[in-house]
Amino acid sequence: MECVQRRKQIFPWFGLDIGGTLVKLVYFEPKDITAEEEEEEVENLKSIRKYLTSNVAYGSTGIRDVHLELRDLTLCGRKGNLHFIRFPTHDMPAFIQMGSEKHFSSLHTTLCATGGGAYKFEQDFRTMGDLELCKLDELDCLIKGVLYIDSVGFNGHSECYYFENPTDAERCQKLPFNLENPYPLLLVNIGSGVSILAVYSKDNYKRVTGTSLGGGTFFGLCCLLTGCSTFEEALEMASHGDSTKVDKLVRDIYGGDYERFGLPGWAVASSFGNMMSKEKRESVSKEDLARATLITITNNIGSIARMCALNENINRVVFVGNFLRINTISMRLLAYALDYWSKGQLKALFLEHEGYFGAVGALLGLLDSA
Amino acid sequence: MGLLRGCGGGSGSRTPVRGSLTKLAYYSTVQHKVARVRSFDHSGKDIDNEPLYEISVQEEITARLHFIKFENTYIETCLDFIKDHLVNTETKVIKATGGGAYKFKDLIEKKLGLKVDKEDVMTCLIKGCNFVLRNIPHEVFAYQKDSDTEFRFQTNHPNIFPYLLVNIGSGVSIVKVESEDKFEWIGGSSIGGGTFWGLGALLTKTKKFDELLQLASKGQHTNVDMLVKDVYGGAYQTLGLSGNLIASSFGKSTTADKEFSKEDMAKSLLHMISNDIGQLACLHAKLHNLDKIYFGGFFIRGHPVTMRTITYSINFFSKGEVQALFLRHEGYLGAIGAFLKGAEQDNPNQYSWGENYAGSSGLMSTSPDVSPLQRTRSGTFDMLEMDRLERPLVNLPLLKDPSTYIPDTVDLTDDAMARKYWLTCFEEALDGVAKRAAASQPDSVDAQERAEKFRQKYWNKLQTLRQQPFAYGTLTVRSLLDTREHCLNEFSFPDPYSKVKQKENGIALKCFQSVIESLDSLDWEERQFALVKGLLAGNVFDWGAKAVSDVLESEPQFGFEEAKSKLQGKGRSLLEGPPHKCALIFADNSGIDIILGVFPFVRELLSRGTEVILACNSGPALNDVTYSESLIVTERIAAMDPVIHSALRDEKLLLVQTGSSSPCLDLSRLDQGLAVLVRERQTDLVVIEGMGRAIHTNYYAVLRCESLKLAVIKNSWLADRLGGKIFSVIFKYEVPCK
């Protein structure tokens, strides 16, 4: 994303992605503010900048992912840092309220937003916040964001990575992957639900399919099964559980591998299959259930992604979305499953900024529109 | 176990044991009565006062395949049953498949003293699937909940391969089947019936699979799932997305504070799993370029709820390009396959088989709420019987497009008014049929009793069909007639009309020569007209048609001339122009119809140099002429008529059997010998005669050669429907467009 000339897009620069579960916000903090600008900067803007950059948590649920911050970025001729902030979608009214209290509308800036919530909350922004949203296409933003972040890199490191020996705890390594020449690629965005896109060039892509079994399903089922209340809690439980107590494996049915079909004994034959039995239902822990839920959802996404890759004849699959945040179990499993079931033909790739690409795309949209 | 009967020395039994039901397949030889006709030696006897031929009832042994399923609780009873029927056999090995093959191995070996051979589940499943696809008409159906006809049965395609079989058991297996022996596991998913059951039990504390489905059918998934409209608010219309699509399954339950109803969670789970399976199946179908997917496994088996969600999912993900199909006997596939594998030395695949409607239970009731009793019964004790046919059945080579040929004219599953009429019609005729059956065996002490049992059985079938018209595939007049024949056979009434036919054949033969003489005295044009009129007039004599049997019962004098006068003359000569190479004629009734109607017509064809293949039923049905009767009748005519005599001698007139014992005609299931002959003799004219063969069936059949369909409508309701009067004439002469 090169800006040919210094544009007159006035600050603040935000990009907003309002998903089904989470709102992702990226904020560009200019670090090259001249004294003259400083002078001119209205009080409201200054207070917003200070508020956002001096805190790592906002209210009870907003969080800034400090570790993802992109430093010394040049965007449209301005130098600065890019901040990544998230909060639950159900706190959206409070967010709009805050914007209203801080007199955001007086800044006369445009707020670019993508995701379903851009439509859902458009009216609230207008009435409560006196703000007109500029709605941008979700998938356009996603792809734009992925390509941009990958091109600028992650503070000198590679944005894109893969796992070598994904199932071997000792030998598993996260290694950088050069996505310089990315096309064609299959982009799998795992948010509350899942969207799968085949990307052939910067502006040639199509949505191949999607599935409703996504991060929301994992979290939703975990809440029902274990009584947990946060995604982090669900993942923490999952990391201590044993899914083989819950799932029926091929070896549980056939005593070993099912050779007629070349199925290994360790493969899951039936997710939650052991839970058909009353005794087994009584002997599993919440952690086991959380782990099984995670494995079920992850394997299923891997399987659908693999089939799409085959149908589209693409061998690089990039997984993004907030489901993967702090979720090494799923990433390794996706990496392994894709490699195993495709006999090494498919490669699973991941990006450091997991769920923020839509928001980045929205920000870029803002700068484009100037 | 009382439902099983007539089991002779079975050659083997196969038990797939899976889940909570055991399915048992066994082969038995069934003794049943058949009517045989035998020519007398007439030399030096007064043939005028002797019957034309002798009728005897003999015991015949035929092979029958039985498939039963019952709850595992009855496994011991079942094994006792098998033991009783294995006494005199060489069987040392029993084939078993499914999870229970492991579970019950010891019990079976101990109880029966047989070695249990475990067969591969999937191999058995596919063998069974191929078998039913090939042998059972209307095996396959599409499920459409929101249409008038929930079950839309498919005609059997001559080429069943390749297809995709998606078996949804505890997990999902997706198998591509390319030929009889070639199949490949192309994928699967761990999210299947076990996930619905296991996860469902955890979420709702409901233990049974059926109860979970019940819960699901009452729930609202929108309370649990996050829909597109939940994410987009009200503005989703602008995106071209349906707001009701599920964006995230269980996406609304991401909270510890709220309670969700069991029903809603079960429904959400059902949607999640069905959609997921449908999506994967479509992705595989697309990759392998297939458009037919058969679904099976306990998740599907007889559950309209899951058939509906799977169908929805397939339509959605394939945008209508792939069809979700289901099988009537899906629950038996493994058992059938295990059986076939064990019976390979008998090579059951070289035979054709026919579903015995009398001995088979129908498809399950649509809604457990509508008739819970029936459902419970058929769910726990269900059976299928297949009769081995003497000879293989094949398509008539002259069918224009065998893959789209549908024998039946009216689909009574579709046409509620017609269904009501015909069911009532068959009910009203039932007492008479039972009476006639009893009367046909005056020397038998238990004929009355058996006739009553027949009446009761067929009555029950008719009541089942009123409730569930889809029970045995597409309901048609043909299936109603065939079911009646099967029920008659079941109670040892192999041929209630044998004596009537014998008498009428005798009488008609006496008139043959005078009819021929009067025809020969006419000039060419008049003769052609008279021949067609004769064909039609002869066809009025049909004891199967109620209106006619009323006239015949009340006016025994009702004669040939009178019948002829009742016809509105309509005739058109197809006998102009160059003679045909060979004509295939499907005959209808015994007596006047065949002897005074068909034979003079045959004689005329022969005189023109056209060869004739005369096809008659292999077994009796109503008063239709059977192949063996036609042999005797022809022999007698040949003795009187030099044209017929020399044609027989020179093999210009050939008598063949159709392979069928139905009053109707399915041109896709005909005796292989007939098909071979039709091809060899380059048949270029097909004549189909009678209501059953030319109106109830084949009225719309399209052939690759000239055809003549002719019948007299002997049913006033049908006449009304077709816009004519009773005893009006169908004369349909069709020339294929070049």
Automatic annotation (TrEMBL), chain A:
It comes from the Eukaryota. PANTHER family: PANTOTHENATE KINASE, PANTOTHENATE KINASE 2, MITOCHONDRIAL. Transmembrane segments: none annotated. GO terms for cellular component: cytosol; nucleus. This is Pantothenate kinase 2. GO terms for biological process: coenzyme A biosynthetic process. One of its GO terms (molecular function) is pantothenate kinase activity.
UniProtKB/TrEMBL annotation, chain B:
Its cofactor is Mn(2+); Ni(2+). It is found in: Cytoplasm. PANTHER family: 4'-PHOSPHOPANTETHEINE PHOSPHATASE (PTHR12280:SF20), PANTOTHENATE KINASE (PTHR12280). Keywords: Acetylation, ATP-binding, Coenzyme A biosynthesis, Cytoplasm, Hydrolase, Manganese, Metal-binding, Nickel, Nitration, Nucleotide-binding, Phosphoprotein. It catalyses: (R)-4'-phospho-S-sulfopantetheine + H2O = (R)-S-sulfopantetheine + phosphate; (R)-4'-phosphopantetheine + H2O = (R)-pantetheine + phosphate; (R)-4'-phosphopantetheine sulfonate + H2O = (R)-pantetheine sulfonate + phosphate. Signal peptide: none annotated. Residues 426-724 form the Damage-control phosphatase ARMT1-like metal-binding domain. One of its GO terms (molecular function) is metal ion binding. It comes from Serinus canaria (Island canary). GO terms for biological process: coenzyme A biosynthetic process. Belongs to the type II pantothenate kinase family. The gene is PANK4. Coiled coil: none annotated. Homodimer. Interacts with PKM. This is 4'-phosphopantetheine phosphatase. Phosphatase which shows a preference for 4'-phosphopantetheine and its oxidatively damaged forms (sulfonate or S-sulfonate), providing strong indirect evidence that the phosphatase activity pre-empts damage in the coenzyme A (CoA) pathway. Hydrolyzing excess 4'-phosphopantetheine could constitute a directed overflow mechanism to prevent its oxidation to the S-sulfonate, sulfonate, or other forms. Hydrolyzing 4'-phosphopantetheine sulfonate or S-sulfonate would forestall their conversion to inactive forms of CoA and acyl carrier protein. Pfam families: ARMT1-like_dom, Fumble. GO terms for cellular component: cytosol; nucleus.
